[in-house]
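Are you able to produce any protein sequence you like plus the matching backbone structure tokens because I've never seen that pairing?
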Amino acid sequence: MLSHVTDSGFWLVSRFFGMDEKTTLKTWTVMETTLGLSAFALAALLWPVLA
């Protein structure tokens, strides 16, 4: 779940918030990991109910 500098969202966040690449990589990676794990947990919880 590690972000890469070729990710367009990475550059959007970087330029919008005026962050350098190192700070953006740390921030963007944590956010993407959190969102990914949250979505997975929600899908895992809903699967037995809706399937």
About this structure: The two ends are 27 Å apart (CA to CA). DSSP finds two helices and no strands in the chain. The chain has a mean pLDDT of 90.
